[in-house]
Amino acid sequence: MKIKILTTFLSIIFLASGVAKVLGLEFETEAFQRWEYPTWFMYMIGFLEVSGAVALMIPKLATLAALALSGVMVGAVFTHLIYAEWVMLLMASIILGLAIWRTYSGRADLLALCRLIKGS
Predict the structure, then answer these.
(1) Residue 85, Cβ neighbours under 10 Å: how many?
(2) For 22-81, what is each residue's pLDDT tens digit?
(3) Sign of the C-alpha dihedral, residues 47, 53, 57, 59?
(4) Are 56 and 66 in contact (CB under 8 A)?
């Protein structure tokens, strides 16, 4: 039950964040300009976040989605660190930690997927 709550929580966070980027909301556009990232990159990250949020809600894809979203969050953590955005760094680090925890919790799913791909 705890894993389902965590998965739903992460899905909501990434859906909200991703939709804000895909819609090009002003605060997201300003942030990506401040960080000197191109606009297309904001839309790509938004698409990845929305896709990941949806995939989190599909049990067979949830762990893989959490792993991919962890990668996205590593980028966010480094961005906030480089630009000394301490509150956002803390928030991104917490989300990264939760995504890693979700990935670790489903490690058996990842191992099964690796075996399937490997053909064992």
Answers:
(1) 16
(2) 999 999 999 999 999 999 999 999 999 999 999 999 999 999 999 999 999 999 999 999
(3) positive
(4) yes
pTM of the model: 0.92
Q: Name the residue with tokens 């990842």.
A: 110
- Average per-residue pLDDT in the chain? 95
Closest to 66 (Cα-Cα) out of 19, 6, 16? 6
> Which residue's entry shows tokens 């893989």?
64
Tokens representing 1 are 């039950």
Q: State the DSSP string of 53-94.
A: HHHHTSTTTHHHHHHHHHHHHHHHHHHHHHTT-HHHHHHHHH
* Both structure tokens of 78: 């480094």
Rounded distance between C-alpha atoms, residue 50 and residue 71, angstroms: 14
